[in-house]
Amino acid sequence: MTVRLVQVSDLHVGAHDAGFEEVAAAVRALVAELAPELVLATGDLSHRNRPGQHARATAFLRSLEAPVLALPGNHDLPALPPARVARPFAAFLREWPGVEPAHVSERLAVCALCSVRPWRYQRGALSAAQLERAAAVLGSAPAGALRVVALHHHLLGAPWRTGKRSVPARSRVLAALAAAGAELVVSGHTHQSVVVERREFLFPRGGEPGLVVATAPGLGRPRPGRHAEAAGLQLYEADTDSLRAVTYAWTGARLEPVAERRYPRSDTSARP
């Protein structure tokens, strides 16, 4: 049993859009080839939270002709109060049914957690109630399903220098997600791809399965002058024994796989 999940993040529709249609066409072709069960869009779909930007981002995601699960990023908030506090997700919710959607099937369980906080903006957070919700969603998944948690703000340091700080108490958060049964935790926000495995978290039901933590590259045009921010996306592919993560980068002509990592899915029968 093999399942595929494609992650796109940080489209920033409305900023540096020149040439994006070429990238969009390449993404459509790749998704058609891969035929994933789900496309996961981890925030910053718009650049300035304008309705037209959200509509264009949504049109692109729905043009992929695959089920899409989308959650907001900090750029999907109003720029200023009072709207940022009183109606933080109004524009996003015109296009999507909620800010914390979930997907559960025989092969895949994905729980989205909204890490965006209007009063923090760049640095997100997760609450105890959200971690409990992740445990409930992942706990409802059939045995053997790949269990995934998605948020916008990163839980890993970026591979190159960035002023963006990770979610507070990230070790505690990762330990809670591991205890909830997560095998893969994905995010965006830094526009830099990194995938690592954490094995120090022990599951209460025995065994030491790894927790894979990944940050996707930004799909929108990289910020001018920023080192090593090629546009791209991530593919995750899992079978009974292993989880494969492939990073694709836009070369200016096509999306090419530039990194591949494979991790064992040990003791999956012992997961909650």
Explained architecture:
This protein is of the alpha/beta class. The protein has a single domain, classed as Purple Acid Phosphatase, chain A, domain 2 (4-Layer Sandwich). 21% of the residues lie in helices and 25% in strands. It is built from six helices and twelve strands. It has helices at 20-34, 51-62, 83-86, 90-93, 128-139, 170-179, and strands at residues 3-8, 38-42, 68-71, 102-104, 108-112, 146-150, 184-187, 194-198, 211-215, 232-238, 242-250, 255-264. The strands form two sheets. A six-stranded mixed β-sheet has the order 3-2-1-10-11-12. The protein has a six-stranded mixed β-sheet with strand order 4-5-6-7-9-8, with helices on one face. The two termini are 19 Å apart. Mean pLDDT is 91; it is low at 268-272.
Task: Considering the chains and any ligands shown, give keywords for the structure.
single chain, 272 residues, alpha/beta, Purple Acid Phosphatase, chain A, domain 2, six-stranded mixed β-sheet, 21% helix, globular, disordered C terminus
Please sum up the structure shown.
By secondary structure, the protein is α/β, with parallel strands linked by helices. The protein contains 6 helices and 12 strands. The chain has a single domain, classed as Metallo-dependent phosphatases (Purple Acid Phosphatase, chain A, domain 2, 4-Layer Sandwich), CATH 3.60.21.10.
In percent, how much strand structure appears in the residues? 25-35%
Catalogue the unreliable spans. 268-272
Q: How does CATH name the architecture?
A: 4-Layer Sandwich
The helix-and-strand class reads alpha/beta
* Outline type: globular
Mean pLDDT: 91
Largest sheet: 6 strands, mixed
Count of individual helical segments: 6
Radius of gyration from the CA trace? 17 Å
